[in-house]
Write a structure and sequence with these properties.
The chain is mainly alpha-helical.
């Protein structure tokens, strides 16, 4: 990555992967210990950091030139569609936590199912961004647009 602001936006993927690994570990031990606090911490991360990350990416998309080719437009459409799917799953994750009882087998299984969906969606999405989206944006944005992106992302993260 040659540009520092795009690198900064992309950096959260490392943190996301760490949290997803942690979530997978929680799921492996769901019957062995009280995991409520761990799950709440992951949920807080999703609701703060991940949603801020999506906002930063959407700012990046808004700054891209409007005369993009069909392939670039498809990439952007996929990113935005992924954000909607992931956000919907995170809302389901949130809703489950509101009345989650890990002793209730049905609720526990639903929690595991939704957690696995979130893990899968985020891993695939982050890989697509790293391999396709961020390299594309680096090619398309001018120095002026990158400076604009830096200012706008800084405002979102305050």
């Amino acid at each position: 990555m040659k540009n520092d602001i795009i690198f900064t936006i992309c950096q959260i993927h490392t943190e996301v992967k760490e949290k997803l690994y942690f979530l997978e570990q929680i799921l492996l031990h769901i019957d062995n210990k009280d995991i409520t606090e761990d799950v709440i911490n992951i949920n807080d991360f999703f609701n703060k950091n991940l949603l801020l990350h999506f906002q930063s990416e959407e700012i990046l998309i808004s700054i891209l030139p409007s005369n993009l080719d069909k392939n670039a437009k498809r990439v952007i459409t996929k990113i935005l569609d992924d954000h909607k799917k992931i956000f919907k799953k995170i809302q389901q994750f949130n809703n489950l936590l509101d009345n989650l009882n890990f002793n209730d087998k049905t609720k526990r299984e639903k929690f595991i199912e939704i957690s696995m969906d979130v893990i899968e969606l985020l891993i695939i999405h982050a890989k697509y961004e790293d391999d396709i989206f961020f390299p594309l944006t680096e090619k398309k944005l001018t120095t002026t647009q990158l400076e604009e992106l830096k200012k706008k992302v800084k405002l979102v993260s305050i």
